[in-house]
Amino acid sequence: SLVKGGDRLELIDRSPDAPLRAAAASRALEQDHTPETGQGLAHQAASHGEGGKRIAQATGPAWGEGPNAVHVIRQSDRFAALFKPAGLHSVELKNRGGDSLEELLAETWQDRFTAPPMLLNRLDLLTSGIVLAAFSQDALRQYQDWEQAQQVRKTYYALVHGAVAAALRLTRRLDMDSRIKTRVLDKEDPDSARHTTARPLIVFSGLEGAALAASLGLETAPEAMTLLEISIQRGARHQIRAHLADAGHPIVGDHLYGRHPGRVMYLHHAAISLPDFDAQCPPPWPRALLEYVK
Fold first, then answer.
1. Does 35 score more than 50 pLDDT?
2. Under a CB-based contact definition with an 8 Å cutoff, are residues 84 and 90 in contact?
3. Which residues pair with 225 in a beta bridge?
4. How far apart are CA 279 and CA 262, in angstroms?
5. Which of these, 266, 282, 254, 290, lies nearest to 83 by C-alpha position?
6. Which terminus of the chain, N or C, has less C-beta within 10 A?
7. How many Å apart are CA 199 and CA 153, to the nearest integer?
8. Where are the alpha helices (DSSP H) in 70-220?
9. What's the whole-model pTM score?
């Protein structure tokens, strides 16, 4: 339930993700932002998660709005799967402005654990989807062991330029010496955990492609676009973005590797599977794309 007192909201909630949402609401109010629509920040949008679990999502510019707000997707005694919206940094970096999911975690659970939860994967600033956190060093080590044993599976969705007619297996080694852009080398990576596989779900071209481009607000309609389901294991910085661009199919909206930068980069981390934990999160995209996503 919500109790409004003056200009602040107090969220009274006993569910596992309550501290995360309360901190987000509090931070949004403290920053005193006002949306362009003129609506106040301090409101709650209620939805129901898996198994009927009630999730109240704090809204505001700092953490997204409605289904695009930071929230806990699923939680166990060892792990939490969190939704990171596009536009929010995963981790804090020195001399870089902007809020981060890591900072929010530290503030949210500081009174419940001896140390803040530790992020187990990172997403780029413009990538949305699942970020996994561990609640203990034992959970962190277990996750690392599963990664080494190739028992971690990550599924992404991406909308890319061009028509992809058949499945792709992208195996070239990545050079990550530059902090800005990852380079794809002209040699195979023997570590299969660094490979990217992509399966085409649907190709949009002709009138259908033009209609999709218009619905996405793209200034220039590509000749064709393909919605891909992508699988990786360990992952590396910009792995999916660099591999797809090197294959001739950059992600729509990718300002670094792509063509015609847009307001949204269509890359989303939709599912993660561990031996004893899994989580799923559909992308916050237009219905024209979601109907082809599992």
1. no
2. yes
3. 161, 204
4. 29
5. 282
6. N
7. 15
8. 101-108, 137-148, 206-215
9. 0.77
Lowest mean pLDDT among 113-127, 192-206, 208-222: 113-127
- Residue 112, judged by CB atoms within 10 A of its CB (0-12, 13-18, 19+), counts as exposed
Tell me the residue type at 110: Q
CA angle 124–293–245, rounded 5-degree value: 45
Tokens of 176: 């990550």
What contacts 5, CB < 8 A, 6 or more positions away? none
What is 16-74 written as a DSSP string?
A: TTHHHHHHHHHHHHHHT---TT---S--EEEEE-GGG-EEEEE-BTTTBSGGGS-EEEE
Q: State pLDDT tens for residues 49-69.
A: 333 232 233 333 346 566 778
